């Protein structure tokens, strides 16, 4: 799903599905202001308009929010390239990277290169269901150079229960969101092997240190202070305590490695994938 | 309890108690190599000698390890002042500080000032029972200037399951060990109010930031990097997940503040105190 904003209207591209009762998902969202399939029980603002037509959804938008699983990003960008406003600003909430022949490519870079526009990122300790019921949380906007654009994103997302901070370190913020999922697998192994709290805290700390070292190896501009932001230590904590990577890794270790990750993923994640 | 080392012998001062069967605790420890009251089920090295006589225990020691509740530290120091080797090195595992009329005084400073010797500290994500059964964990030695003394402490404590790292930031390390207990109370409130994982991660992150700011206000020499060590982020994690401060604060919040901390402490901690 990728959201597109245009003045007060939030046009949300939705991959169209037919619901069991024969209705189209976008129609139901627009009639009920509720995404009955993926976020049931939560009322969306009346200014959110679901649109099954990707090109139509992005056409007039001045702010583009990307929130799809990372494996779909390249295809989506290729479909909308040349069909958006030249002055549009993008932000990516997508966690992950494309590993290409010539090396790893961050999703924000992919967006910038495919669409020819500036792209910031938003990451943090942000379990979606908790944000939806307005429990207090924080997030980090990472931006490259355009501080004004970053401030606009902060203004857009900021509420009394969702505190957003901008830092000039797009790669650091994006890599935090991506690499913590690797650490969560290690944390899951520790849980599965019942190694205790000292070991788990050590794994999380060493994982954070590895995240920092790896990020700085890829991008020497990455700042230490970014790892103290919500996208860093806080997201690491939530992901290593809850999170599907941790959960499946725990099951893997509990089974002594005798059941594959593919098998456990299919059984435990109801169609979602490890990231 | 304060331990004292002298070549291969570890002389451990034990506050003498008579056990229900009429035997003295120190006698039982020396006969069985087990602290049957405070660490039952764990065999101590045969070189550990329990001694009920504080002055005798410290007299010939060249390395002094302090591990008592912080409220007893000043009295203990006054009792042994002038009765130790002038070249003894001290290390404090004590968490807390003395708040005096003239301002806060770190325990390592108290030891140095009262005894006229150098004092390092050891802190980290170190739940004692887990270390006792040799589960992997890490710790941080904080030292002031004497790097050689710090290396000797590292050598003394280091094993294949207990990884010790030395950093030149005695105040930073000691304040981490002290201040995380305050953050754990906030984490307990979040748990008691069922505010969710995003909020808890935010509280822990903001707590870590406050710990850093407060430490640097007291001691401008404190380093940011110390908060990435085991004494920092890792100990904060274990304390905010388990830990008695978290637990009692959770109960306080669950009871809507209607039962006092004193009452809950007496009921829940079997004679231990919040720190």
Automatic annotation (TrEMBL), chains A, B:
The active site is at residue 180. The keyword Oxidoreductase applies. NAD(+) binds at residues 72, 128, 244, 273, 275. It comes from the Eukaryota. Its EC number is 1.1.1.8. Keywords: NAD, Oxidoreductase. GO terms for biological process: carbohydrate metabolic process; glycerol-3-phosphate catabolic process. Residues 169-269 form the Glycerol-3-phosphate dehydrogenase NAD-dependent C-terminal domain. Gene3D superfamilies: N-(1-d-carboxylethyl)-l-norvaline Dehydrogenase, domain 2, NAD(P)-binding Rossmann-like Domain. GO terms for molecular function: glycerol-3-phosphate dehydrogenase (NAD+) activity; NAD binding; protein homodimerization activity. This is Glycerol-3-phosphate dehydrogenase [NAD(+)].
């Amino acid at each position: 799903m990728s959201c597109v904003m245009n003045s007060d209207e939030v046009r949300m591209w939705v991959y169209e599905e037919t619901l069991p009762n024969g209705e189209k998902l976008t129609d139901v969202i627009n009639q009920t202001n509720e995404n009955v399939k993926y976020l049931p029980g939560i009322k969306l603002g009346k200014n959110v308009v679901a649109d099954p037509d990707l090109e139509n959804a992005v056409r007039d938008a001045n702010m583009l929010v990307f929130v799809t699983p990372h494996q779909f990003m390249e295809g989506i960008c290729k479909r909308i390239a040349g069909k958006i406003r030249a002055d549009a600003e993008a932000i990516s909430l997508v966690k992950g990277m494309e590993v290409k022949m010539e090396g790893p490519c961050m999703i924000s870079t992919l967006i910038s290169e495919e669409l020819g526009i500036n792209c910031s990122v938003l990451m943090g300790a942000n379990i979606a269901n908790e944000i939806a019921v307005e429990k207090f949380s924080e997030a980090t906007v990472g931006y490259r150079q355009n501080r004004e654009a970053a401030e606009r994103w902060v203004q857009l997302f900021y509420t009394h229960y969702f505190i957003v901070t901008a830092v000039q370190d797009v790669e650091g913020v994006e890599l935090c969101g991506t690499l913590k999922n690797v650490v969560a697998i290690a944390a899951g192994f520790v849980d599965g092997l019942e190694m205790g709290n000292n070991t788990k805290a050590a794994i999380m700390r060493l994982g954070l240190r590895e995240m920092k070292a790896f990020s700085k190896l890829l991008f020497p501009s990455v700042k230490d202070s970014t790892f103290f932001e919500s996208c860093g230590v806080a997201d690491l904590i939530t992901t290593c305590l809850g999170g599907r990577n941790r959960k499946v890794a725990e099951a893997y270790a509990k089974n002594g490695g005798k059941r594959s990750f593919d098998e456990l993923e299919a059984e435990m994640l109801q169609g979602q994938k490890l990231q």
